[in-house]
Amino acid sequence: SVAYFNGDFIKVDDAVMPLEERGLQFGDSVYEVIRVYNGKPYTLIEHLQRLLISSESIMLASPNVMELEELVLQGIDKLQMQSGTIYLQITRGSASRNHEFPIDAHQNLMAIWKVDEGVISTPDQGVKLKSFPDERWKKCFIKSTCLLPNVLAKEKAKRKGCYEALLIRDAEIKECSAMNVFIVKDGVVKTPPADQSILNGITRQKVLSLASQNGLLTSETVLTIEDIEVADEIFITSTTKELIPVTQVDNFIIGNGKLGENFSLIHRLYKEDVI
Ligand code: PDD
């Protein structure tokens, strides 16, 4: 693996972050996670465009997308990375602790590239979700590092033997702590609308387009617990986990408790797309 901090490639374990840093002290920062397949960053531009939206939404000067693209490729090249994950983070900068924006601080830009074997396994029994009230703020479309509610929900789910937490707000299903959610009912692939209350996952968008390109009906629509009770199939998506089938939510067994045919088709389409 290799890391980058403000202009230099460094070792991941090298200490470079000033202690008085707004990302650390306030979560005043935004980030992206990108997968590399066959030496190429998958949907890189989409991720960088979303980083731009996140930055602008927290009044952070926009990053230069072309420079970031160049940086991402440099790291891949340095490691001769075939498969792996890239983490990018921009913080408002280092400054003496004070809530208001510092006048003279410079953004800190950091990145980490991690090589892996490229085998993202799909649990063939499907996973369980546990539902929780969504305790996050109202701007979850911003990919910010203020992730405490996400982290707590994920840990609580894990302690109940579940793979992910399903976050519910105003009786609506929103997403998981770090993944988007899909429900298939009567052949229609449904997912909650990408308003301000969820992160508009790049994998989510890819799944919607692959599904419709291949003749499946898709719908971005409000979903509730009742939709879970009658769901034929449920699956969850993210860059790092790809598509994961869900066979239980709380006490409900989904469909017949086995992997669904729509999941298997869309999963195959996704695997074909990344290579
Ligand atoms: N998480 N929803 C939330 C809250 C997320 O944090 C993520 C991604 C997603 C899926 O988005 P995408 O398909 O663009 O990865 C949905 C990343 C992977 C993370 O925090 O590690």
From TrEMBL:
Coiled coil start-end: none
Keyword Iron (UniProt): no
Record bears the keyword Acetylation: no
Oligomeric form and interacting partners: Homodimer.
GO cellular component: cytosol
Keywords: Aminotransferase, Pyridoxal phosphate, Transferase
Cofactor(s) this protein requires: pyridoxal 5'-phosphate
GO molecular function: transaminase activity
Native species: Aquibacillus halophilus
Family: Belongs to the class-IV pyridoxal-phosphate-dependent aminotransferase family.
InterPro entries: Aminotrans_IV, Aminotrans_IV_CS, Aminotransferase-like, BCAT-like_C, BCAT-like_N, Class-IV_PLP-Dep_Aminotrnsfr
Protein name: Amino acid aminotransferase
Gene3D superfamilies on file: 3.30.470.10, D-amino Acid Aminotransferase, subunit A, domain 2 (3.20.10.10)
